[in-house]
């Protein structure tokens, strides 16, 4: 079973940057797959932020395009989310997730494996 552990959250002022990391272990998917970053603010539904398919193709929510970058370092078994030009509306708990299927990488309901989350707070 895939285990995912996020880190790197914290508090930052608007315009600042953070890099989230997701340590991946037990990754035994043999075929196509997606990994993604999701977030959930209080009282709101969980939403997809960034996804990476087969470790190559990336996709982003419109709200973060041009500001966030998802990447994976296979040698370190780590998924990253570089977040620049942060806004107060980016405040949320951020989760990484993985699923052994390609497609719909930003749709949280299709994911099997989740980390415990890391909190990001952006102040104005």
Give the topology string: H per helix, E per strand.
EEEEEEEEEEE
Report the average pLDDT across residues: 95
Largest sheet: 7 strands, mixed
Uncertain spans:
none
Structural class: mainly beta
Shape: globular
Count of helical segments?
Answer: 0
Provide the gyration radius in Å: 13 Å
The fraction of residues in strands falls at over 45%
List the helices and strands and how they pair.
Layout lengths: L2 E5 L2 E4 L4 E8 L8 E7 L6 E7 L3 E4 L7 E6 L4 E6 L8 E8 L13 E2 L3 E6 L1
Parallel strand pairs: 2-11
Antiparallel strand pairs: 1-3, 3-8, 4-5, 4-9, 5-6, 7-8, 9-10, 9-11
What does it look like?
With 124 residues, the chain is an all-beta fold. It is built from no helices and eleven strands. The strands form two sheets. Strands 2, 4, 5, 6, 9, 10 and 11 form a seven-stranded mixed β-sheet that branches. A hairpin with a 3-residue loop joins strand 5 (47-53) and strand 6 (57-60). The model has no long low-confidence stretch (mean pLDDT 95).
